Structures are given as structure tokens and as C-alpha cells.
Amino acid sequence: MKKKAIIEKTARIIFLVCAVIAIFAVCSITVYMFIKGAPALKKVGVSDLLFSNKWQPTAKDPSYGILYIILSSIVATAVSVLIGVPIGLLTAVFLSEMAGKKVGNIVGSTVELLAAIPSVIYGLIGMMVLNPFMYKLEKSIFAGDSSHQFTGGSNLMSAIIVLAIMILPTVISISTSSLKAVNGSLRSASLALGATKIQTIFKVVIPSAKSGILTGVVLGIGRALGEAMAINMVAGGAVNLPLPFNSVRTLTTQIVSEMGYSSGLHRQVLFTVGLVLYIFIMIVNYLLLKARRKGCMDE
Amino acid sequence: MNNNNRSRKIKDYFMYALIYICAGFSVILLVGIILYVFAKGIKTVDWSFLTSVTSVLKGTKGIAGNIVNTLIIILITMVIATPIGIGSAIYLNEYAKPGKLVSIIEYATETLAGIPSIIFGLFGMMFFVEKLKLGYSLLAGSFTLILMILPLITRNTQEALKTVPASYRSGAIGLGSGKWHMIRTILIPSAMPGIITGVILAIGRIVGESAALLLTAGSAKLLPQTFEQLLKKPTQSGGTLTIQMYLSATSEGDFDTAFGIAVVLLVIVLLINIGTKALTRHFDVSRKD
């Protein structure tokens, strides 16, 4: 009998330890990001680092301003979400309100597969398909403009399109399940009052699913903000103001492309770039939690 | 009134068209991606591509080394992450009483799931590669990935445990079984399909991962020649398929290899998708009776 009690207690403790590892992991990641990211802020100065747009880490008199990098991340994320969310939401409407079982299954599986494709494949296709197309566009728009620096199509727009496609599955799957969760009697009531199906969808179903849809949007923002490899392959390699035809660096691509050869203060600044990204992600996580809580309260 | 009706109808048709176009878009996108990758890459993929190593000396082009690296990373990561993830889910579902600790653990798990892989890569580089002095190695890469896929396994196991009827638990306890015995003999077997689904999804995530591994596991692509070398491999640098594809497409400019690997990756993704689907279906059927 005593032996059994010991086994029970040991099992409980082991399971508890497993569960606590997640807390431990989050804490150590947070601590490390701050410990490694903070020194450069002190050495370079907060305003010279965060609010200066001069990025010349290998110059004789180096300057480490990451303002353009931060702006590029924000612009790329915001625009890709603005493009991806409407497409995703309408697809979700199709899946939950209109598709029959068979068609719904096909489209649903498609979305799942899109989510599973590794980001480097999106990057590769972006390089081979999007970039040449952008280059053509660039050549016709900026023909004869000597002030424009040609990028060969590796620009902000390519990055935005790739990101918009990559967040689609997230937005679609979360929105679909929240649309499906809307009570059927709301739909019947609306239809019985004489509203058309489209009116019912846009005036009744979507508003009542809005907190779930919001969760999908926030998840999409997080995904776009954190994506590294795919954009690194299509967005070019220069730190620039985020204009459509400029080649840009985002927070993530800055780390991926320079971590390999950087050293000293340059490397520490890259850690600060990581810290800035981490803080953005934590804000997104917090918003996510709020959106979810709101969803629970609405129910 | 009539006029109003007509404009409403036009609006409706317009919205219908938009909805169908958007839904069609994802299907066309997927079909397009698959066709494009296969058209460009299938000619590269043959037996020697899968079983040899790229070497200028021998004039061969192949990804065997990267396949071995990928398998080693999957093995180490899953062997460690699976028990921890399952244990964590069991604690949350079976032992913990709702309270502060549980909500902190769940919040931590969610936060972990929301951290992008590049941050895991940075942390892995600072902690496993430099602080623990593992160097750029498959081991450092695996340890980093453990943290990354832990939430995936925990969540899937939790979902699976939730579907096990409460009567199973009370039945076992009522017959005099201890809690641990009940978990081992009743709960885990009943939740197995869900757990396996989580494991397969995690493997898919590892296969597709790039940013976290680039910063921790490096990019070597040599194939271990002897068994001894294979045993030593985890402590050495090694690039997975995804990493090699990235390098082929960017710094090496070898698009044949890049598309060849893309074909291999897509096939793996498709197989994983079919596998989890079949499991879920099986799971649903066995639940019904």
C-alpha cells in the first residue's frame, strides 16, 4: 500500500515538472532576449538606435539606426494583413455558409495544406515568379528615372504578397470555425425577417462571430511579423524606407541575413533587433489573449 | 421599392461572385504551387539525388546528408519533446485544479506557441550554442526545436484527453485502480490517436523549419561514412533539407537542387497531411461506439 502511494506521488511530481517546463522556457527566453538585447541600447543610445535611419554597421564610423527596419516590418505586416484578411474572411464565409459537404471538404483540405507548406517554398516561388514580374513592372514604371535604385524585383511589394498568402490559412481556419459556431437560429431569424442570404451573412453572422475573427486577424499579424525566411528570399537586402519598389529589410530578415558574419557591437545591435521583435510579438500575444477573453465573455 | 430591390440584387450577386473568387483563389494557389514545384523539380529527383552527396569531385548532386541530418534532428527532438508534452497535458487535464498555476502554465504554453521561430533561433544560439557550448550542432538545433514544438504536442494531447469519457476514469478508479495506473492503462491508450496526430504534426513542423535551425544547427551536408561518425553527428553542424533548399536558392544559386528538395518537402507534407487525416477519421469512428 505504501509503495503505491509513493508511485502516485512520484507520477504527480513528474507530470508537474513537465508542465512547468513551459513556464521555465518562456521565462528564460524573455530574460535572455533582454539581457542580450539591452547592452547595445545603452552603448549606441536609445534614440540613435531606434529613431535613426542610418544603418551602416560596417562603416569606419558605424551607425546603427534601425528605424527603417522597424518601419518596414510594420508596413509589410499591416498591408499584408489588410490584403489577406478580406480574402481569408470571404473564403471562410464560403466554407461555413455556402459550400456543400464535398466542395467544402476540398477547399478545407486545400487550406490545411497551404498552412503546412514550409515557408522556404513560398520564398522560392516568390523568387522565381513574383520577383521577375515585379522587375518588369519596375522597369516600366521607373524607365528613365535615374534616381531610382533598381532592385531586380526584390522589393517590399513582393514581401507583402508572399506574407498575405502565408497568413491566409490562419485567418481562414480560425474565421471558419468561429462563423460555424454562430447559432443557427440567428440565421433563420434573419432570413425569416426577409433579409437575403448575403445580408444575413454580413449583417448578422459576421458581426456575431467578430471576436473569433479578430482572434484570427491577430494570429495573422503575429505570423506576418515573425516570418523570416520567405521574406528574406524575396524582399532584397538593403535597409530602405518601406516604399513599394524599394528593397527592404524587416526585423526578422535583418537577423537572418547578418547574424552569420556580424561581430562585436554590430552583433549586439542585431540582438536588440531581436528584442524589438520580441516586444512586438508579446504585444500581439497580449492582444490575442484579450480577443480570446472577449470571445469567452460574448458567449 | 422596385429599384431598391434591384440594386440589392446586384449587390448580392456582386458579393456572391467575390466570395466564390476568394474561395477559388486558395484552391488555384495550392494547385499552382504544387504543379509549379513539380514541373520545375521532378526531373532532378531520382535515386542518386536521394542517396548521394553533392560533390564537385565526384560530379554528383544529392541530398543524402541533409536527409540524415533531418532524421537525426526529428529523432532527438521527438524523443525528448513527446514525453514532456504528454506529461504536461496529463498534469493540466488530470491533476491540476483550476487556479493560478494552471492559468500561468496555459498562458506560458500559449505564449510559446506564439513566439516566431526566428526568436527561438536567437535564443537557441545564445543559450544552447554559446552558453552551453554545444556549438552549431544538430543537438543545439534539436534542443531549440523541443521548446518550439512543445505547445503543439501539449495541446493535441489535451484535446485527446478531453474526449476520453469521464466514465472511463471513474470506472477505473471505482475498480480500485490507482490514478497513475488508470492514466497508464486507460487514458493514454484511449488518447493515443490524438497523441500520434500531435506527434506527426510536430514532425511536419520540424521538416519545414528553417529560421530556428539556421541559427543553431548550421548547414553542413556531409554524409557520415561510418557508424562511429553517425554517433558523433549530433554534436556536429548539419543542415536539414529545408536549410539546404534555402542555401541552394540563395547563396549557392543552384535552383535545380532547390526545386528538387522542394519536391521532396512537398511529398513529405502531403504524406503527413494524409496520415493525420486518416488518423483523425479513425479516431472519430472509434469514439462513436
Question: Could you name the key traits of this structure?
Answer:
heterodimer, A: 299 residues, mainly alpha, 2 strands, 1% strand, globular, B: 289 residues, 12 helices
Q: Could you provide a short overview of the structure?
A:
The complex is a heterodimer of chains A (299) and B (289). By secondary structure, chain A is mainly α.
Structure characterization notes:
The complex is a heterodimer of chains A (299) and B (289). Chain A is built from 12 helices and 2 strands. With 299 residues, chain A is an all-alpha fold. Chain A has a two-stranded antiparallel sheet with strand order 1-2. In chain A, strand 1 (55-56) and strand 2 form a beta hairpin. The mean pLDDT of chain A is 91. Chain B has 12 helices and 2 strands; from the N terminus they run H-H-E-E-H-H-H-H-H-H-H-H-H-H. A two-stranded antiparallel ribbon of chain B has the order 1-2. In chain B, strand 1 (53-55) and strand 2 form a beta hairpin. The longest helix of chain B has 40 residues, at 2-41. Chain B is globular. The model of chain B has no long low-confidence stretch (mean pLDDT 89). Chains A and B meet through helix 1, helix 3, helix 4, helix 5 and helix 6 of A and helix 1, helix 3, helix 4, helix 5 and helix 6 of B.
The share of residues in extended strands of chain A comes to under 5%
Strand order of the largest sheet of chain A: 1-2
- In the predicted model, the low-confidence regions of chain A spanning at least 5 consecutive residues are none
Secondary-structure-derived class of chain B: mainly alpha
Number of strand elements of chain B: 2
Radius of gyration of chain A: 24 Å
Overall geometric form of chain B: globular
Along the chain, the helix and strand elements of chain A come as HHEEHHHHHHHHHH
User: For the largest beta sheet of chain B, what order do the strands appear in spatially?
Assistant: 1-2
Count, helices of chain A: 12
pLDDT averaged residue by residue of chain A: 91
